[in-house]
Amino acid sequence: PVVRAPGRAFPVETRWLDRPLPPDRPFEAAMADLILRALDETAGGVLAFLPGEGEIRRTAARLSGRLPAGVEVLPLSGALDLAAQRRAVRPLAAARKLVLATAIAETSLTLAGIATVVDGGRARRSRFDPGAGMARLVTERVTRAEADQRRGRAGREGPGVCYRLWTRGEEGALAAFPPPEIAAGDLAGLALELALWGAGSGAGLAFLTPPNPGALAEARALLADLGALDAGGGVTPHGRRMAGLPLHPRLAHMLLTAGRQAAPLAALLSDRDPMPAAGTDLAPRLAALAGKGAGSGAGSGAGAGAGSGIVRPEALERIRAEARRLARLVPEGPAPLSPGAMAALAFPDRIGQRREGRAPRWLLSGGRGATMDAADTMAGLPLLVACDLDGDPREARIRLAAALTEAELRAVHGARIVRADVCTWSQREGRVVARSEERLGALVLAARPRPDASPAARAAAAAEGIRALGLQALGWTPAATALRARAAFLRAAGAADLPDVSDGALLAGLEGWLAPVLGGCRTAADLAALDPLPALRAHLGPEALARIDRLAPAELVTPLGRRLPIDYSGDVPTVAVRVQELYGLDRHPTAGGRPLRLELTSPAGRPIAVTTDLPGFWRGSWAEVRRDLRGRYPRHPWPEDPVAAAPTLRARPRGA
At what angle do helices 213-225 and 188-197 cross, to 10 degrees? Predict the structure, then answer.
């Protein structure tokens, strides 16, 4: 037999914005205006879709004092207790209902009395960042499928209207469907299940949507870090026990290691934050669970303000019940551990060490950065465990954390701490730093100077400094700069077999050509005093040097025997020379098979002409230049035929 149960849907009119929202228009302000329009143009209850609880609170604040008489605002989200959710779902006898809801209202549940939907066009999803090893909630545009689902809420009891906070033209840019969870979520649980099945990376399994290989590899690395997988990728006995607990693998590892004392923390971290306005510290939340503190008393009822940090008894009791259930699944643990020590078991990659400076910024043991509000009570802690982060790839914001001492850290992760001798360049100090360190991941827990570092290690560290500062950090003499320019000129002219002396090539090969002279450099001042010419000559080698001297000479020897430096830094090698010194020269001087650019000057050293064809200059422009120079320098010889004249730098005596 086939049972058919067709759904009943009434027609729903869709109304879009006339023009796109201005980029600087606050989302909550635009939603409040559209809700007021919907209340004015329609009858019956209104359901407004917002991405999260924060947007619900802010939109309600924008509507305060502006709603028509007889309209009651009802929030609806998964964080509310059952009574509050039922009040939003059931009809109101004496008031018009305005429900401000998250995506929870997209389900097949019918909200009584709703005839109008206002869709903000945003959805909040969990996205896993494999590079950071953490999931984060991101706000994105809804997909067309989600928008259609929301629109249908207006047609459950009769014809309805749907207002959309975007234009009809913008709708074409929406994605068709939301991504499946396996493509965007945390895969640690899946990776553990695959290991239990013996499927490893899942290769060969017929997934409807295969998991992202990078995210799955990151999940397996986390499991190995937690002791759930062995070196070969197989599940360990500890991993099997973790899989038997109804928890994320991080929290399962913490509960198995710390025992029953970790049950309240595991339950708290598995649930929604019961005190979202209480700062980042886990301590007041745990105190509330234990029946202590402002959040635990009977006065924390449904009427408590959302921003007060006080939780409802139902939220506390739900977490307490879960803690009792979890405690029955594991034996008593070892010696008592602090919340921070237990959290460090679950999040070995999120142990934070405060960076230097006034800003509350931490380096996490996994290598990422994290920060929090400067006014937070935990902003000054030298060590903490970041239990919840927003996942910002640049610097994550800490949402929940537990305080940790170094003694507690060493007690739970002593086996992970490694000792290493390091020799690096300190960008902050501008010097080579050699020390012995105790490290936990990216964190340096202790360090002492190491004066016995080898010259090779110090040379490698100095090379790091040069790469950080650039080649200009060295003491480039005119001779060293000129040699580089001559070699680069010949390579550009076709001598590709000569060693590359460009900045990129020299920086990439520092260890090969400069390291032999870097062992004595300790500071940036030492680098600035280092003339790289000997190392550069050794790098080029005698054959290349001889070739450079032959084809790209450093100097032009004039007919008078004077040696004038040739500048190879430009596109064409150039030399400045007094025009009288070239009398008698009927061939243009060259370098690398190319004519030199001669900057001809007067007896006073002032430029008079530039040429790359000296014979042509003698035959052409010289007559006009000669007339001008004879008037300005009458005591100097200015022959009509300079090729037949003798070169000179002298002037005739006065009266001659």
Answer: 80
From 365, 371, 367, select the one nearest 348 (Cα to Cα): 365
Lowest mean pLDDT among 35-39, 109-113, 376-380, 566-570: 109-113
Kindly state the percentage of the chain with pLDDT values over 90.
71
For residue 17, the tally of other CB atoms under 10 A from its CB is 17
Residue-wise pLDDT for 618-632, tens only, equals 999 999 999 999 999
Q: Are 128 and 183 in contact (CB under 8 A)?
A: no
Task: Give the separation between CA 447 and CA 423, rounded to whole angstroms.
Answer: 12
Task: Report how far apart, in Å, the C-alpha atoms of 655 and of each of 587, 634, 639, 648, 652 are.
Answer: 35, 11, 19, 19, 8
The confidence band for 307, taking pLDDT boundaries of 50, 70 and 90, is very low
Read off the pLDDT of residues 320-342 as tens digits, 9 standing for 90 and up. 999 999 999 999 888 899 999 99
Q: What is the pLDDT of residue 515?
A: 87
pLDDT of residue 12: 95
Query: What pLDDT, on the 0 to 100 scale, is given for residue 297?
Result: 47
pLDDT confidence tier of residue 306, bands split at 50, 70 and 90: very low
Query: Angle 335-265-123 (CA atoms, 0-180°, nearest 5)?
Result: 155
Other CB atoms within 10 Å distance of the CB of residue 303: 7
- Per-residue pLDDT, 104: 84
Distance (Å, whole) CA 65 – CA 348: 49
Report yes or no: 565 and 591 within 8 Å, Cβ to Cβ: no
Q: Name the residue among 167, 151, 55 with its Cα closest to residue 105.
A: 151
Q: How far apart are CA 196 and CA 235, in angstroms?
A: 6
CA distance 190 to 324: 26
Q: Coil, strand or helix: which one is 620? A: coil
The first and second tokens of residue 567, run together, are: 């500048």
* Residue keyed to tokens 């032959």: 550
Cβ atoms of 398 and 389 closer than 8 Å? yes
409-421 pLDDT tens trace: 999 999 999 999 9
pTM summary value: 0.69
Residue 382 — φ and ψ, nearest 5°?
Answer: -70, -30
> What are 501-527's pLDDT values in tens digits?
999 999 999 988 998 888 889 999 999
C-alpha separations of 355 from 106, 359, 439, 448 in Å:
44, 8, 15, 18
Q: How are the residues of the chain apportioned to helix, strand and coil, as percentages rounded to the nearest 5? A: 35, 20, 40
Exposed (0-12), middle (13-18) or buried (19+): which is 57, by Cβ within 10 Å? middle
Residues 202 and 209 sit within 8 Å (Cβ to Cβ) = no
Angle 627-628-633 (CA atoms, 0-180°, nearest 5)? 100
Measured in degrees and rounded to the nearest 5, phi and psi for residue 126 equal -90, 125
d(CA 576, CA 275): 78
Residue 523: count of CB within 10 angstroms of its CB? 14
* Residue whose tokens read 């007021």: 36
Task: Quote the CA–CA distance of 365 and 347 in Å, as a whole number.
Answer: 9
